[in-house]
Amino acid sequence: MKTILYIVWALFVAAAIFSLLHASRRTKRQEQQMASWPKAQATVTGSATGWTSGVGGSNRNLRYFPTYQFTDPQGTLFMGKSEISGVEQPVPGSLIEVAYNPANPNESLQVSSEPRTAMGCLIAFFAVFAVASFWFIGVFPMG
């Protein structure tokens, strides 16, 4: 029976590692892309709403994704929606920094260190969870 628990544990850890690597690569790719893109101050125009997944028995929470507009050096107006959500609704008229693709300014991303911070927290959480669950399987009495 413990063998089955260890197999399930190994599959969970493998899936978590795969997911974290995929998310980490995506975040790194976006950061590298944004490093060479010009930056602009964007004005928040409103927000789009979404929900957290509620995975793991947690409550689903409403999240707000700022919508914004900015102008390039030629004065052309562009609009975008941030991929970074917040718990509080953003105030229209407030400023955020965005990076935009000079070849296609319709492609823009909000500049933030949050994705990197979140990845660090997720990696630490899953590492502790994996070690604790492995220990628990070892001490769990199988009758």
Enumerate how many helices there are, as a single number: 2
Mean pLDDT: 87
- How many β-strands, per DSSP? 5
Question: What Rg, in angstroms, do the CA atoms define?
Answer: 20 Å
Instruction: Classify the beta-strand content into a percent band.
Output: 25-35%
Helical fraction: 40-55%
Overall body shape: elongated
Termini Cα gap: 10 Å
Order of helices and strands: HEEEEEH
Largest sheet: 5 strands, antiparallel
| Biggest sheet, spatial arrangement of strands | 3-2-1-4-5
Low-confidence stretches: none
Structural class: alpha+beta
Keywords:
alpha+beta; 5 strands; membrane; DUF3592 domain-containing protein; transmembrane helix; transmembrane; DUF3592
Can you give a write-up of this model?
- This protein has 143 residues and is an alpha+beta fold.
- The protein has a domain at 34-114.
- The chain is 43% helix and 29% strand.
- The protein contains two helices and five strands; from the N terminus they run αβββββα.
- A five-stranded antiparallel β-sheet has the order 3-2-1-4-5, with helices on one face.
- Helix 1 runs antiparallel to helix 2 (114-139).
- The N and C termini lie close together (10 Å).
Note the topology.
Layout: H1 2-36, E1 39-51, E2 62-71, E3 77-81, E4 95-101, E5 104-110, H2 114-139
Antiparallel strand pairs: 1-2, 1-4, 2-3, 4-5
Helix pairs in contact: 1-2
